[in-house]
Amino acid sequence: MTHQLHELMRDSLDHCVKCTICETYCPVAAATPLFPGPKYVGPQAERYRGGDANADASLDYCSSCGICTQVCPQGVKIAEINSQAKAELAQERGVSLRDRLIARPTLAGWMGAPVWPVANWTTSFGPFRLLLEKVLRIHRKAPMPRWAGRTFQSRTRARRRAPNPSAPQRQVVFFHGCAANFYEPGTGAMAVQVLEHNGLEVIIPKQGCCGLPLQSNGQYDAARAYVRRLAAQLAPYARAGHDIVATSTSCGLMLKREAHEILGVDDDDLKVVSERMFDICEYLVMLDERGELNRDMQPVDMEVPYHAPCQQRGHGVGTPAMELMALVPGLRASQVDAVCCGVAGTYGLKAEKYDIAMEVGRSLFDQVRASGAPLSVCDSETCRWQIAAATDRPSVHPVEMLHRAYGLG
Amino acid sequence: MIGAGLAGLVAGVRLAEGGMRVTLVAKGVGSLNLSPGVIDVLGYAPGRVDAPREAIGRLVAERPDHPYARIGADAVEEALAWFTGRVPQMRYRGDGPRNLLLPSAVGVPRPTALAPASMAGADLRGGGRFVAVGLSGLKDFYPRLLADNLTRADLPEGATVTARHAEISASPRPGRADVAGQVYARALDDPPFRAEFAAALRGLAEPGETILLPAVLGTARAGEVFDELQERVGLAIAEVPTVPPSVAGMRLNTELAGAFARAGGRVVLGVEAVGATGADGRISGILIRDAARTRELPADAVVLATGGFSAGGIELDSHGALREVVLDLPVSGPPEGVPPLSERHLDHQPLMASGVAVDGMLRPVGPGGEPVWDNLYAAGTIVAGAEPWREKSGEGIAIAGAYRAAGAILEET
Ligand SMILES: Cc1cc2nc3c(=O)[nH]c(=O)nc-3n(C[C@H](O)[C@H](O)[C@H](O)COP(=O)(O)OP(=O)(O)OC[C@H]3O[C@@H](n4cnc5c(N)ncnc54)[C@H](O)[C@@H]3O)c2cc1C
Q1: Which CATH superfamily hosts domain A2-93?
Q2: CB 3.0–4.6 Å: which of A23, A39, A282, B402 could bond B10 by disulfide?
Q3: pTM for this one?
Q4: Which residue in the set A23, A257, A275 is minimally distant from B180, CB to CB?
Q5: Segments in chain B below pLDDT 50
């Protein structure tokens, strides 16, 4: 890949002073000796790549959580360099059928949605999962969401309105992502109600997958095609001045930054969309700072552990979910002391990585269980599924807590 | 607070505990994870310092542009007392007004004011008998070099040291040739490996000898690990700092960040501060670049703690021009005619003392000595006039300066 941006990422490795701070924060290196650490496979190994040299296969154990880039004191784009090298590795080795399948949530979504009761039965049916593990190498215990039947898109068809440049501030676009579309339409619906409760009208345009799972599975060409298509769907709204609000924190980050910095997508559609893209908690806190958030809330008397997922940290907006929950009377939220839950999108589903992912998340799961709380809170869907499965209690999006506080439920 | 190093964290903790709403923004973590976890106040001025408080008095008389001249020796004392109370798990120990003399990673006696109890036992001032014990999986610790250097160390009159070395093979990842310090440390937090490790140490040293081990004895439960190892082995143990990554520095970073979070402070990591808005001599907000855009973070007061050259707080361009990266503050560098760099790495390097000059309230000042912004403060390595790694003054300047700056803000608002 000889993209200008790729060169920029690559240049940043000259800033690496080998301080190894990234290695001390890397959750995967802490969990397994199979991954030697982000500096080792990144700024160090990158110097030997290019030309005929292949990337070291241990790179494949990187989960792409992105923590290394966030903590680097020198601004080295470690995660980005490693993601790009992983894509080259995937190209050299060929992409497995499994990685093609799990990287396309829309495909699984559309296959399961019409036959959802059967689909849900099979994915929770032991022998079938064993078969799935044998044939496809998807771990039999890996958390799988349940299909919800009718998609969120079809439930919200009435909101598929055209951009409205005359009143863009009062009308926001909701980017719901594949998770809400196929598996958690309830989260999507709560987000819409919370936004409406704050005096905003919600438009839900037709929208596809952002391509993030493809990117993290090394299928860059397909990922670019997906994210370009999505950006083209959302761009007219951004151009008309509508803000775009996302409940899927990793997909929001894809549009804000990763599609540009990792995939090298440079087009105008993406640029306008990324400037208007907000994580929903970030957006609500912004409303609050402007004095526009509805603070009329009922007590929600409970303690909840909150996990800020890796991709949420990548937004660089702090932890707005904690700030919102602090506004709810009676709600005592405490942030779990953990870097990552392990699943990292699709990483923890893979048979050869499931145990590593569970080890990465161990301390997080212990803390959630020890809290005794009936549920936990987290912004990212795949992390919620992982945490819920590992702790035997639901894990919900922060908007669900607001939804309760507003008495909308 | 701009910067998540020692200075940014200390100022953040004091302000948050003082009831302020504090946000700390940083583009990455600070230098603490690379530091040995000890608190240097003044180690060389230019000869080795035995009594730092007195030496600070002489230093500021000779060098009125040194950060300690702005902070004041009394403030250093007060700040350190407050600081050690904020990080009780580090169990800092000192010797009143005098410096300890502890072995560095390669066995050089290193003056420092405060050290974790797990390190303080290696104090070389009274001499002693030591066994430096390496871990066969930990490449970056050299027991033989450590022991050899200790036997020829430059010690106070009358102190004699004998030292030998040994190695144990207990490993959290048996069979692996290269196991990082933090991997040992995390494994030692868990009782099973701790027991195995203690068993391997038994019989290596004789009564009267102190076992020197790399500072990897636990992370979250370091205190418990240290106590239990000493008890099981039945001999004195002392940790010696390692080259980065430094587990002892990580412990301090974690405990301080925890104190900040408990006091209600917010951290926004991975963003770069790129400027400020303001009028009439007061800053009203800091501009930060996040994943999607540059936005304003409103602020009543700002502490600049972006570190020096190594952290990116100060930059030098190819024409030799110095720049403070966030607010374009005036930078004071080596005076005209003074060569900025010396040939030998550890010699006096005037360029490395570059930074922003401050007034008595730790506010960056212009050439005439007037504050650039009334509500902007600076602390840590960004402050001009010191060469911390040469003077061994970095932590003292960072802690006392940040404490003072936070105090000034609490008084102002
Ligand atoms: C390798 C090394 C060895 C050292 N050894 C010694 C020693 O032996 N003895 C001694 O006394 N001192 C030593 N020092 C110095 C000492 O560690 C520091 O003086 C002390 O830790 C104070 O650091 P600080 O908080 O000022 O800055 P740092 O810890 O460097 O932190 C700076 C922070 O600012 C952030 N930052 C920078 N620019 C921006 C920006 N534009 N936007 C947002 N954030 C930004 C960085 O990400 C970082 O979080 C050493 C320093 C280093 C780097």
Answers
A1: Alpha-helical ferredoxin (1.10.1060.10)
A2: B402
A3: 0.94
A4: A23
A5: none
